[in-house]
């Protein structure tokens, strides 16, 4: 979601686009890679709109930038 650079030392997780808890299935069509911060921030949100995905992405990027300054 945050489009993290893959050359960074970032652990990617499999995110269920439609969460299992909301009726999603553990199948390839419902999985996408996500950094830990995006995956945890999204949690079991469903339905998830493009604007919410953008909001999560911006929040995660802002936190990363603040961590880089510290």
Structural commentary:
The relative contact order is 0.21. The protein is globular. The protein has one domain. It is 39% helix and 14% strand. The longest helix is centred in the last third of the chain and has 20 residues, at 50-69. It is an alpha+beta fold and 70 residues long. The chain contains two helices and two strands, in the order ββαα. Helix 1 (36-42) crosses helix 2. The protein has a two-stranded antiparallel sheet.
Question: What is this entry, summarized?
Answer:
With 70 residues, the chain is α+β, with helices and mostly antiparallel strands. The chain has helices at 36-42, 50-69; strands spanning 12-16, 31-35.
Features:
two-stranded antiparallel ribbon; alpha+beta; 14% strand
Write the layout of secondary structure elements.
Elements: E1 12-16, E2 31-35, H1 36-42, H2 50-69
Antiparallel strand pairs: 1-2
Helix pairs in contact: 1-2
Q: What is the straight-line distance between the termini?
A: 24 Å
Helix-strand pattern: EEHH
Radius of gyration: 13 Å
Helix percent reads: 25-40%
Percent strand: 5-15%
Shape: globular
Mean of residue pLDDT?
84
Runs in which pLDDT lies below 50 for 5 or more consecutive residues are: none
How would a crystallographer describe the biggest sheet? Answer: 2 strands, antiparallel
Give the strand order of the largest sheet, numbering strands 1, 2, ... along the chain: 1-2
Count of strand segments:
2
How many helices?
Answer: 2
Structural class of the helices, strands and pairings? alpha+beta
The total domain count is 1
């Amino acid at each position: 979601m945050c489009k993290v650079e893959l050359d960074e030392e970032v652990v990617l997780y499999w995110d269920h686009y439609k969460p299992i808890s909301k009726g999603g299935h553990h199948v390839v069509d419902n999985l996408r890679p996500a950094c830990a911060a995006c995956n945890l921030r999204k949690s079991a949100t469903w339905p998830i709109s493009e604007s919410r995905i953008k909001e999560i992405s911006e929040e995660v990027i802002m936190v990363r930038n603040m961590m880089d300054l510290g």
